[in-house]
Amino acid sequence: MENFTFYSPTYFVFGKGTENEAGQYVKKYGGHKVLIHYGGGSVKRSGLLDRVKASLDAAGIAHVELGGVQPNPKSTLVYEGIELARKENVDFLLPIGGGSVIDSAKAIAFGALYDGDFWDFYCGKQGTVTKALPVGAITTLAASGSESSTDSVVTYVAEDGKQYKRCADGDILRPVFAIMNPELLFTLPPYQTASGITDIISHCLERYFTKTPEVEITDRMLEAVMLTMLKEGKRVMDEPDNYAARANIMWAATVAMNGITGVGRAADWGTHHMENELSTSYGCSHGAGLAILTPAWMTYAMNIDVMRFAQFATRVCGCQMNFAHPEVTAKEGIEFMRSFFKSIGMPGSISEIGGKDEDLAGLAENMFHGAPNHGNFVKLTPQIAEEIYRLAL
Ligand code: NZQ
Ligand code: ZN
Predict the structure, then answer these.
(1) CA 276 – ligand 1 centroid, Å
(2) Can you give the pLDDT at residue 248?
(3) Model pTM greater than 0.90?
(4) Does residue 382's CB lie within 6 angstroms of at least one atom of ligand 1?
(5) Is the CB of 258 inside a 6 Å radius of any atom of ligand 1?
(6) Whose CA is closest to atom 8 on ligand 1?
(7) 302 Cβ contact list (under 8 Å, min separation 6)
Protein backbone atom coordinates (compact mmCIF):
# COMPACT_ATOMS: atom_id res chain seq x y z
CA MET A 1 0.00 0.00 0.00
CA GLU A 2 1.26 3.48 -0.84
CA ASN A 3 1.53 6.29 1.74
CA PHE A 4 -1.55 8.46 1.84
CA THR A 5 -3.38 11.27 3.59
CA PHE A 6 -7.14 11.22 3.79
CA TYR A 7 -9.39 13.99 5.07
CA SER A 8 -13.14 13.55 4.89
CA PRO A 9 -14.88 16.22 6.96
CA THR A 10 -18.42 16.01 5.51
CA TYR A 11 -21.21 15.66 8.08
CA PHE A 12 -23.83 13.29 6.66
CA VAL A 13 -27.52 13.76 7.40
CA PHE A 14 -29.18 10.71 5.86
CA GLY A 15 -32.83 9.64 5.73
CA LYS A 16 -36.45 10.60 5.30
CA GLY A 17 -37.38 14.26 5.74
CA THR A 18 -33.80 15.41 6.33
CA GLU A 19 -34.10 18.26 3.81
CA ASN A 20 -36.28 20.00 6.40
CA GLU A 21 -33.19 20.33 8.59
CA ALA A 22 -31.23 22.32 5.99
CA GLY A 23 -31.62 25.62 7.87
CA GLN A 24 -30.24 24.31 11.12
CA TYR A 25 -27.21 22.78 9.39
CA VAL A 26 -26.42 25.96 7.47
CA LYS A 27 -26.51 27.76 10.81
CA LYS A 28 -24.32 25.13 12.47
CA TYR A 29 -21.70 25.59 9.74
CA GLY A 30 -21.67 29.37 9.97
CA GLY A 31 -23.83 30.46 7.02
CA HIS A 32 -25.76 33.73 7.25
CA LYS A 33 -26.61 34.39 3.62
CA VAL A 34 -27.02 31.45 1.30
CA LEU A 35 -26.93 31.10 -2.47
CA ILE A 36 -29.35 28.30 -3.31
CA HIS A 37 -28.29 26.69 -6.59
CA TYR A 38 -30.40 24.26 -8.62
CA GLY A 39 -30.99 22.83 -12.07
CA GLY A 40 -33.68 22.87 -14.72
CA GLY A 41 -36.72 22.61 -12.49
CA SER A 42 -37.06 19.16 -10.90
CA VAL A 43 -36.63 20.69 -7.42
CA LYS A 44 -39.50 23.09 -8.10
CA ARG A 45 -41.81 20.41 -9.46
CA SER A 46 -41.21 18.15 -6.46
CA GLY A 47 -41.75 20.93 -3.92
CA LEU A 48 -38.25 20.35 -2.55
CA LEU A 49 -37.09 23.92 -3.17
CA ASP A 50 -40.01 25.32 -1.16
CA ARG A 51 -39.34 22.93 1.73
CA VAL A 52 -35.68 23.95 1.86
CA LYS A 53 -36.53 27.65 1.73
CA ALA A 54 -39.03 27.18 4.56
CA SER A 55 -36.33 25.50 6.61
CA LEU A 56 -33.90 28.37 5.95
CA ASP A 57 -36.57 30.94 6.86
CA ALA A 58 -37.32 29.10 10.10
CA ALA A 59 -33.62 29.23 11.00
CA GLY A 60 -33.40 32.95 10.13
CA ILE A 61 -31.00 32.40 7.22
CA ALA A 62 -31.20 34.91 4.35
CA HIS A 63 -31.11 33.49 0.84
CA VAL A 64 -30.86 34.29 -2.85
CA GLU A 65 -31.17 31.74 -5.63
CA LEU A 66 -29.78 30.81 -9.02
CA GLY A 67 -31.38 28.00 -11.02
CA GLY A 68 -30.76 26.74 -14.53
CA VAL A 69 -27.74 24.45 -14.10
CA GLN A 70 -27.61 22.13 -17.10
CA PRO A 71 -26.42 18.53 -16.91
CA ASN A 72 -22.64 18.61 -17.43
CA PRO A 73 -22.64 22.15 -16.02
CA LYS A 74 -21.37 25.06 -18.09
CA SER A 75 -18.87 27.79 -17.23
CA THR A 76 -21.35 30.48 -18.37
CA LEU A 77 -23.64 29.96 -15.38
CA VAL A 78 -20.68 29.69 -13.02
CA TYR A 79 -19.58 33.21 -14.04
CA GLU A 80 -23.10 34.43 -13.37
CA GLY A 81 -23.11 32.72 -9.98
CA ILE A 82 -19.77 34.23 -8.98
CA GLU A 83 -21.05 37.71 -9.80
CA LEU A 84 -24.25 37.14 -7.85
CA ALA A 85 -22.42 35.68 -4.84
CA ARG A 86 -20.12 38.71 -4.68
CA LYS A 87 -22.90 41.25 -5.22
CA GLU A 88 -25.10 39.69 -2.54
CA ASN A 89 -22.28 39.04 -0.05
CA VAL A 90 -23.18 35.38 0.07
CA ASP A 91 -21.21 33.36 2.64
CA PHE A 92 -22.57 29.86 1.99
CA LEU A 93 -23.48 27.76 -1.09
CA LEU A 94 -26.47 25.42 -0.94
CA PRO A 95 -26.80 23.30 -4.09
CA ILE A 96 -29.95 21.18 -4.40
CA GLY A 97 -29.60 18.62 -7.16
CA GLY A 98 -27.32 16.09 -8.78
CA GLY A 99 -23.60 16.22 -9.46
CA SER A 100 -23.95 18.99 -12.02
CA VAL A 101 -25.58 21.38 -9.55
CA ILE A 102 -23.19 20.53 -6.73
CA ASP A 103 -20.15 20.91 -9.00
CA SER A 104 -21.38 24.24 -10.33
CA ALA A 105 -21.88 25.42 -6.73
CA LYS A 106 -18.35 24.33 -5.81
CA ALA A 107 -16.99 26.37 -8.72
CA ILE A 108 -18.93 29.45 -7.56
CA ALA A 109 -17.78 28.82 -3.98
CA PHE A 110 -14.11 29.17 -4.83
CA GLY A 111 -14.52 31.45 -7.85
CA ALA A 112 -16.14 34.10 -5.65
CA LEU A 113 -12.97 34.29 -3.52
CA TYR A 114 -10.47 34.15 -6.38
CA ASP A 115 -9.17 37.27 -8.11
CA GLY A 116 -8.50 35.58 -11.44
CA ASP A 117 -10.62 33.39 -13.72
CA PHE A 118 -12.12 30.40 -11.86
CA TRP A 119 -11.31 28.28 -14.92
CA ASP A 120 -7.57 28.54 -14.06
CA PHE A 121 -8.13 25.65 -11.62
CA TYR A 122 -9.63 23.40 -14.30
CA CYS A 123 -7.25 24.10 -17.17
CA GLY A 124 -4.05 23.51 -15.23
CA LYS A 125 -2.97 27.15 -14.70
CA GLN A 126 -3.56 26.73 -10.97
CA GLY A 127 -3.21 23.58 -8.85
CA THR A 128 -5.34 22.48 -5.94
CA VAL A 129 -8.12 24.77 -4.73
CA THR A 130 -7.35 25.94 -1.19
CA LYS A 131 -9.84 28.72 -0.52
CA ALA A 132 -13.61 28.49 -0.95
CA LEU A 133 -16.87 29.45 0.68
CA PRO A 134 -18.45 26.50 2.50
CA VAL A 135 -20.83 24.31 0.51
CA GLY A 136 -23.64 22.21 1.99
CA ALA A 137 -25.15 19.76 -0.51
CA ILE A 138 -28.70 18.46 -0.77
CA THR A 139 -28.47 15.48 -3.10
CA THR A 140 -31.29 14.47 -5.46
CA LEU A 141 -29.41 11.98 -7.60
CA ALA A 142 -27.21 9.07 -6.50
CA ALA A 143 -24.30 9.07 -8.91
CA SER A 144 -21.39 11.50 -8.80
CA GLY A 145 -20.70 11.36 -5.06
CA SER A 146 -19.99 15.08 -5.29
CA GLU A 147 -21.78 15.56 -1.95
CA SER A 148 -18.54 14.54 -0.24
CA SER A 149 -15.93 14.42 -3.00
CA THR A 150 -13.01 16.77 -3.56
CA ASP A 151 -13.95 17.34 -7.20
CA SER A 152 -15.86 19.74 -9.38
CA VAL A 153 -16.38 18.93 -13.05
CA VAL A 154 -17.36 21.85 -15.29
CA THR A 155 -17.57 22.34 -19.07
CA TYR A 156 -15.91 25.48 -20.43
CA VAL A 157 -17.66 27.06 -23.38
CA ALA A 158 -14.96 28.79 -25.45
CA GLU A 159 -15.61 31.76 -27.74
CA ASP A 160 -15.15 29.58 -30.84
CA GLY A 161 -17.91 27.27 -29.54
CA LYS A 162 -15.55 24.47 -28.54
CA GLN A 163 -16.21 22.87 -25.17
CA TYR A 164 -13.76 21.46 -22.66
CA LYS A 165 -15.01 19.38 -19.73
CA ARG A 166 -12.40 19.39 -16.98
CA CYS A 167 -12.00 18.83 -13.25
CA ALA A 168 -10.75 21.00 -10.36
CA ASP A 169 -10.11 19.56 -6.93
CA GLY A 170 -9.15 20.23 -3.34
CA ASP A 171 -10.13 19.02 0.13
CA ILE A 172 -11.72 22.43 0.67
CA LEU A 173 -14.31 21.47 -1.97
CA ARG A 174 -15.72 18.66 0.14
CA PRO A 175 -19.13 19.89 1.28
CA VAL A 176 -19.34 20.61 5.01
CA PHE A 177 -22.59 18.68 5.15
CA ALA A 178 -24.56 16.41 2.84
CA ILE A 179 -28.29 16.02 3.25
CA MET A 180 -29.34 12.73 1.67
CA ASN A 181 -32.96 11.62 1.60
CA PRO A 182 -33.39 8.49 -0.56
CA GLU A 183 -37.07 9.38 -1.09
CA LEU A 184 -35.93 12.36 -3.20
CA LEU A 185 -34.69 9.83 -5.77
CA PHE A 186 -38.17 8.40 -6.44
CA THR A 187 -38.87 11.04 -9.11
CA LEU A 188 -35.77 10.29 -11.19
CA PRO A 189 -36.38 9.22 -14.79
CA PRO A 190 -35.13 5.62 -15.39
CA TYR A 191 -32.36 6.90 -17.69
CA GLN A 192 -30.93 9.06 -14.87
CA THR A 193 -31.24 6.26 -12.31
CA ALA A 194 -29.39 3.90 -14.66
CA SER A 195 -26.77 6.54 -15.48
CA GLY A 196 -26.16 6.96 -11.76
CA ILE A 197 -25.81 3.21 -11.20
CA THR A 198 -23.26 3.06 -14.01
CA ASP A 199 -21.31 6.04 -12.68
CA ILE A 200 -21.08 4.51 -9.21
CA ILE A 201 -19.78 1.23 -10.62
CA SER A 202 -17.31 3.14 -12.77
CA HIS A 203 -15.96 5.03 -9.74
CA CYS A 204 -15.14 1.61 -8.29
CA LEU A 205 -13.62 0.23 -11.50
CA GLU A 206 -11.39 3.27 -11.97
CA ARG A 207 -9.81 2.38 -8.64
CA TYR A 208 -10.05 -1.41 -8.85
CA PHE A 209 -7.80 -1.69 -11.89
CA THR A 210 -4.54 -0.64 -10.32
CA LYS A 211 -0.90 -1.58 -10.53
CA THR A 212 -0.46 -1.08 -6.77
CA PRO A 213 0.06 -4.55 -5.28
CA GLU A 214 -1.50 -5.96 -2.10
CA VAL A 215 -4.34 -3.55 -1.44
CA GLU A 216 -6.76 -6.18 -0.24
CA ILE A 217 -8.74 -3.94 2.10
CA THR A 218 -9.70 -1.49 -0.65
CA ASP A 219 -10.12 -4.30 -3.22
CA ARG A 220 -12.67 -5.86 -0.90
CA MET A 221 -14.43 -2.57 -0.17
CA LEU A 222 -14.73 -1.85 -3.89
CA GLU A 223 -16.08 -5.34 -4.53
CA ALA A 224 -18.67 -4.82 -1.80
CA VAL A 225 -19.87 -1.57 -3.38
CA MET A 226 -20.01 -3.11 -6.86
CA LEU A 227 -21.86 -6.25 -5.67
CA THR A 228 -24.37 -4.00 -3.92
CA MET A 229 -24.86 -1.99 -7.09
CA LEU A 230 -25.39 -5.08 -9.26
CA LYS A 231 -28.10 -6.29 -6.86
CA GLU A 232 -29.79 -3.03 -5.94
CA GLY A 233 -29.33 -1.53 -9.40
CA LYS A 234 -31.45 -4.24 -10.96
CA ARG A 235 -34.01 -4.04 -8.15
CA VAL A 236 -34.46 -0.28 -8.36
CA MET A 237 -35.05 -0.35 -12.11
CA ASP A 238 -38.05 -2.64 -11.47
CA GLU A 239 -39.14 -0.91 -8.26
CA PRO A 240 -38.29 2.80 -8.48
CA ASP A 241 -40.08 3.53 -5.17
CA ASN A 242 -38.22 0.87 -3.21
CA TYR A 243 -36.78 2.87 -0.30
CA ALA A 244 -34.27 0.21 0.76
CA ALA A 245 -32.84 -0.12 -2.73
CA ARG A 246 -32.64 3.67 -3.15
CA ALA A 247 -30.99 4.04 0.27
CA ASN A 248 -28.35 1.41 -0.45
CA ILE A 249 -27.58 2.97 -3.81
CA MET A 250 -27.44 6.48 -2.38
CA TRP A 251 -24.90 5.52 0.25
CA ALA A 252 -22.95 3.44 -2.27
CA ALA A 253 -22.60 6.55 -4.44
CA THR A 254 -21.01 8.40 -1.56
CA VAL A 255 -18.73 5.56 -0.48
CA ALA A 256 -17.60 5.01 -4.08
CA MET A 257 -16.44 8.59 -4.59
CA ASN A 258 -15.44 10.16 -1.30
CA GLY A 259 -12.02 8.55 -1.54
CA ILE A 260 -12.09 5.98 1.24
CA THR A 261 -12.05 3.11 -1.27
CA GLY A 262 -9.13 4.64 -3.14
CA VAL A 263 -6.56 5.35 -0.46
CA GLY A 264 -3.07 3.89 -0.81
CA ARG A 265 -3.51 2.78 -4.39
CA ALA A 266 -3.06 4.36 -7.84
CA ALA A 267 -6.34 4.93 -9.65
CA ASP A 268 -6.80 5.08 -13.42
CA TRP A 269 -9.57 7.58 -14.42
CA GLY A 270 -8.84 7.12 -18.14
CA THR A 271 -12.41 6.01 -18.88
CA HIS A 272 -13.75 9.08 -17.10
CA HIS A 273 -11.52 11.41 -19.09
CA MET A 274 -12.52 9.72 -22.33
CA GLU A 275 -16.17 9.94 -21.28
CA ASN A 276 -15.95 13.72 -20.89
CA GLU A 277 -15.69 13.94 -24.68
CA LEU A 278 -18.82 11.83 -25.27
CA SER A 279 -21.11 13.80 -22.96
CA THR A 280 -19.71 17.04 -24.36
CA SER A 281 -20.01 16.06 -28.04
CA TYR A 282 -23.22 14.01 -28.05
CA GLY A 283 -25.11 15.34 -25.00
CA CYS A 284 -25.44 11.93 -23.38
CA SER A 285 -25.41 11.60 -19.60
CA HIS A 286 -22.06 10.99 -17.93
CA GLY A 287 -23.21 7.49 -16.92
CA ALA A 288 -24.35 6.61 -20.44
CA GLY A 289 -20.93 7.56 -21.79
CA LEU A 290 -19.28 5.40 -19.16
CA ALA A 291 -21.51 2.41 -20.00
CA ILE A 292 -20.36 2.68 -23.61
CA LEU A 293 -16.65 3.04 -22.84
CA THR A 294 -16.16 0.72 -19.88
CA PRO A 295 -16.31 -2.63 -21.74
CA ALA A 296 -14.10 -1.16 -24.50
CA TRP A 297 -11.50 0.08 -22.01
CA MET A 298 -11.56 -3.27 -20.20
CA THR A 299 -11.06 -5.14 -23.48
CA TYR A 300 -8.04 -2.97 -24.24
CA ALA A 301 -6.65 -3.16 -20.69
CA MET A 302 -7.16 -6.82 -19.72
CA ASN A 303 -3.87 -8.10 -21.09
CA ILE A 304 -1.94 -5.74 -18.81
CA ASP A 305 -2.98 -7.89 -15.83
CA VAL A 306 -5.22 -10.78 -16.81
CA MET A 307 -5.29 -12.17 -13.27
CA ARG A 308 -6.75 -8.92 -11.89
CA PHE A 309 -9.49 -9.01 -14.52
CA ALA A 310 -10.13 -12.70 -13.73
CA GLN A 311 -10.30 -11.81 -10.03
CA PHE A 312 -12.89 -9.14 -10.83
CA ALA A 313 -14.85 -11.61 -12.96
CA THR A 314 -14.99 -14.26 -10.25
CA ARG A 315 -15.48 -12.05 -7.20
CA VAL A 316 -17.88 -9.48 -8.65
CA CYS A 317 -19.47 -11.02 -11.74
CA GLY A 318 -19.82 -14.54 -10.34
CA CYS A 319 -17.84 -16.18 -13.18
CA GLN A 320 -16.14 -19.55 -12.73
CA MET A 321 -12.34 -19.34 -12.71
CA ASN A 322 -10.72 -21.06 -15.68
CA PHE A 323 -7.28 -21.78 -14.24
CA ALA A 324 -5.89 -23.05 -17.53
CA HIS A 325 -7.13 -19.98 -19.42
CA PRO A 326 -7.66 -17.02 -17.07
CA GLU A 327 -8.16 -14.76 -20.10
CA VAL A 328 -11.40 -16.62 -20.80
CA THR A 329 -12.64 -15.74 -17.30
CA ALA A 330 -11.49 -12.14 -17.74
CA LYS A 331 -13.46 -11.85 -21.00
CA GLU A 332 -16.54 -13.35 -19.35
CA GLY A 333 -16.37 -10.62 -16.71
CA ILE A 334 -16.25 -7.94 -19.39
CA GLU A 335 -19.24 -9.46 -21.20
CA PHE A 336 -21.11 -9.69 -17.89
CA MET A 337 -20.67 -5.94 -17.37
CA ARG A 338 -21.67 -5.17 -20.95
CA SER A 339 -24.95 -7.05 -20.54
CA PHE A 340 -25.56 -5.56 -17.09
CA PHE A 341 -25.36 -2.00 -18.47
CA LYS A 342 -27.66 -3.02 -21.33
CA SER A 343 -30.13 -4.64 -18.92
CA ILE A 344 -30.62 -1.35 -17.07
CA GLY A 345 -31.20 0.53 -20.33
CA MET A 346 -27.82 2.10 -21.01
CA PRO A 347 -26.53 2.48 -24.58
CA GLY A 348 -23.80 0.07 -25.69
CA SER A 349 -21.97 1.94 -28.42
CA ILE A 350 -20.88 5.37 -29.62
CA SER A 351 -22.97 4.86 -32.78
CA GLU A 352 -26.09 4.52 -30.62
CA ILE A 353 -25.61 8.08 -29.34
CA GLY A 354 -24.91 9.48 -32.81
CA GLY A 355 -21.12 9.15 -33.09
CA LYS A 356 -19.30 8.21 -36.31
CA ASP A 357 -15.93 6.72 -37.10
CA GLU A 358 -14.68 10.04 -38.49
CA ASP A 359 -15.33 11.72 -35.10
CA LEU A 360 -13.01 9.49 -33.11
CA ALA A 361 -9.65 11.12 -33.84
CA GLY A 362 -11.14 14.49 -32.89
CA LEU A 363 -12.47 13.15 -29.59
CA ALA A 364 -9.05 11.74 -28.74
CA GLU A 365 -7.33 14.99 -29.69
CA ASN A 366 -9.70 17.20 -27.71
CA MET A 367 -9.26 15.26 -24.48
CA PHE A 368 -5.54 16.05 -24.56
CA HIS A 369 -6.06 19.77 -25.17
CA GLY A 370 -4.18 21.40 -22.26
CA ALA A 371 -4.35 18.10 -20.34
CA PRO A 372 -1.41 15.91 -21.33
CA ASN A 373 -1.72 13.04 -18.81
CA HIS A 374 -4.56 10.57 -18.68
CA GLY A 375 -4.76 7.10 -17.20
CA ASN A 376 -2.52 5.07 -14.98
CA PHE A 377 -3.29 1.37 -15.41
CA VAL A 378 -3.44 2.24 -19.11
CA LYS A 379 -1.35 5.31 -19.88
CA LEU A 380 -3.40 6.92 -22.60
CA THR A 381 -1.99 8.58 -25.69
CA PRO A 382 -4.20 10.12 -28.40
CA GLN A 383 -3.59 6.97 -30.47
CA ILE A 384 -4.59 4.58 -27.66
CA ALA A 385 -7.64 6.69 -26.80
CA GLU A 386 -8.73 6.61 -30.43
CA GLU A 387 -8.27 2.84 -30.48
CA ILE A 388 -10.48 2.47 -27.39
CA TYR A 389 -13.11 4.80 -28.86
CA ARG A 390 -13.08 2.58 -31.95
CA LEU A 391 -13.60 -0.53 -29.82
CA ALA A 392 -16.69 1.25 -28.44
CA LEU A 393 -18.02 2.38 -31.83
O1 NZQ B 1 -31.91 19.93 -13.77
P2 NZQ B 1 -33.01 19.20 -13.12
O3 NZQ B 1 -34.36 19.65 -13.53
O4 NZQ B 1 -32.87 19.15 -11.62
O5 NZQ B 1 -32.94 17.67 -13.66
C6 NZQ B 1 -31.82 16.86 -13.44
C7 NZQ B 1 -30.96 16.67 -14.69
O8 NZQ B 1 -31.72 16.86 -15.86
C9 NZQ B 1 -32.32 15.46 -13.19
N10 NZQ B 1 -32.60 15.21 -11.77
C11 NZQ B 1 -31.74 15.28 -10.74
N12 NZQ B 1 -32.34 14.88 -9.60
C13 NZQ B 1 -33.62 14.57 -9.94
C14 NZQ B 1 -33.80 14.79 -11.31
N15 NZQ B 1 -34.97 14.56 -11.95
C16 NZQ B 1 -36.00 14.12 -11.20
N17 NZQ B 1 -35.89 13.85 -9.87
C18 NZQ B 1 -34.73 14.07 -9.21
N19 NZQ B 1 -34.64 13.75 -7.91
O20 NZQ B 1 -31.26 14.61 -13.59
C21 NZQ B 1 -30.56 15.21 -14.67
C22 NZQ B 1 -29.09 14.96 -14.52
O23 NZQ B 1 -28.56 15.63 -13.42
P24 NZQ B 1 -26.97 15.73 -13.20
O25 NZQ B 1 -26.73 16.51 -11.99
O26 NZQ B 1 -26.33 16.16 -14.47
O27 NZQ B 1 -26.56 14.19 -12.99
P28 NZQ B 1 -25.40 13.54 -12.13
O29 NZQ B 1 -25.70 13.61 -10.68
O30 NZQ B 1 -25.18 12.23 -12.74
O31 NZQ B 1 -24.13 14.48 -12.37
C32 NZQ B 1 -23.37 14.39 -13.54
C33 NZQ B 1 -22.22 15.36 -13.47
O34 NZQ B 1 -21.36 15.03 -12.38
C35 NZQ B 1 -20.01 14.97 -12.86
C36 NZQ B 1 -20.20 14.48 -14.26
O37 NZQ B 1 -19.06 14.64 -15.04
C38 NZQ B 1 -21.38 15.28 -14.72
O39 NZQ B 1 -20.97 16.57 -15.13
N40 NZQ B 1 -19.20 14.19 -11.93
C41 NZQ B 1 -18.77 14.78 -10.80
C42 NZQ B 1 -17.96 14.14 -9.89
C43 NZQ B 1 -17.52 14.80 -8.66
N44 NZQ B 1 -17.80 16.08 -8.48
O45 NZQ B 1 -16.90 14.19 -7.78
C46 NZQ B 1 -17.48 12.78 -10.12
C47 NZQ B 1 -18.17 12.06 -11.22
O48 NZQ B 1 -17.26 11.18 -11.82
C49 NZQ B 1 -18.76 12.88 -12.29
O50 NZQ B 1 -17.75 13.04 -13.24
ZN1 ZN C 1 -18.17 9.61 -12.70
Answers:
(1) 14
(2) 98
(3) yes
(4) no
(5) no
(6) 71
(7) 309, 327, 330, 331, 334
